[in-house]
Amino acid sequence: MNLLIKSIAFVSILSLMACNGGDKNTDKTKTEYADASKDDANEIIEYHNIVLNLTDKNDRSLKSMDDNLETIAKGLKNPTDRFAFTGLMRLTDFGRVNFSKIKPETPPSALNRDDVNFFKGKIKLLNESYKSINDTYKTLTDYIKAEDFKDDKSVNGFKLLDSIYSQGKKYYAVNDEILNKLQVIGDDAERVILKTHPLKEFIYALKDDTQAAAALIALMGKHAKDYKKGESEIKKAYDALDAQNKKHIAMSFPSDSENSYKAKSFGDFNNSVTDFLASARKIMRQGAEKGSLTNENADELYQKKDMMRVYYNSFVD
């Protein structure tokens, strides 16, 4: 049974969500936004972060749903077991309150017309798809509560599961389009802000670590079912992040800077990377011993990666 999230939770919504560090040694322009005014660049970055929050919220909710779908799928195969459907968790809304005037459905005027139309259309599709998944999930849970599987030998239950999976594929196709576009416009707008930013080298350090962590997670996801096949590549990615982390910890934060108060946030981020690496080592050890990785491994790295994002945002805010 294929469930909502692709094979294992490592898959790479995480790598797509990671901020793109870009090439900090080049002024190559990807879009017109690399020449935007600072006001426009700030507006674009704000929209970028608001949409990321939406996709992040949805993804966490769908991951929570996927855990329940696994339980339901097993239960439908053996519905006579009185414990078949125990352990279903209440879905949680992981969203943050958005106080901005900018909403995901209303892209800012700083974007060109084509991009405004792109985001309006894709966000509408994303919201509709997300609602459809949740509506079908409610139908499925009502079916379970009413024990209707006793009447049809679980046939309609499996049909609803297949429907959720099909809708999930469509949702993530749109989601990936949005994230790819966000990555381009966000990177170019950020270049404008960082050109004269006194802490740009520290921000690039955070971005590099975020990218490297996402790359490591993506590799683990790629080789989750056959860890041995990707073990050397995973170890190489781990070593690269570990070396970066040590280098960034050793960076001397300017004590005379008007932004010196951000030194703690920079240290907190570096500590979160160290914590991420500790979890990665443990999971890599398990992968080497067992030959595969689990959803529980993914959940742990997901949480550690999210803490990196929290400290990243704290530093750049």
Topology at a glance:
Elements: H1 13-17, H2 38-77, H3 113-145, H4 149-152, H5 155-194, H6 200-222, H7 227-249, H8 263-290, H9 295-316
Helix pairs in contact: 2-5, 3-5, 6-7, 6-8, 6-9, 7-8, 8-9
- Number of alpha- plus pi-helical segments: 9
CATH architecture field of the largest domain: Up-down Bundle
The class by helix and strand makeup works out as mainly alpha
- Proportion in helices: 55-70%
Largest sheet: none
In whole angstroms, the N-to-C terminal distance is 43 Å
CATH homology-level superfamily of the largest domain? Uncharacterised protein PF12889, N-terminal DUF3829
Radius of gyration: 22 Å
CATH topology of the largest domain: Four Helix Bundle (Hemerythrin (Met), subunit A)
- Write the element-wise H/E pattern from the N-terminal end onward: HHHHHHHHH
How many strands in all? 0
> Which CATH top level class of the largest domain fits?
Mainly Alpha
Oligomer: single chain
Q: Extract low-pLDDT stretches.
A: 5-29
Question: How many discrete domains?
Answer: 2
Overall shape: globular
Name the average pLDDT.
85
Strand content: under 5%
Signal peptide: 1-18
Protein name: DUF3829 domain-containing protein
Organism: Pedobacter paludis
Keywords: Signal
Can you describe this structure?
By secondary structure, this protein is mainly α. The protein has 2 domains: 1-196, Uncharacterised protein PF12889, N-terminal DUF3829 (Four Helix Bundle (Hemerythrin (Met), subunit A)), CATH 1.20.120; 197-317, Up-down Bundle (Methane Monooxygenase Hydroxylase, Chain G, domain 1), CATH 1.20.58. It is 69% helix and 0% strand. It has 9 helices and no strands. It is globular, with a radius of gyration of 22 Å. The two termini are 43 Å apart. 34% of the residues are buried. Residues 5-29 have low confidence and may be disordered. This is DUF3829 domain-containing protein.
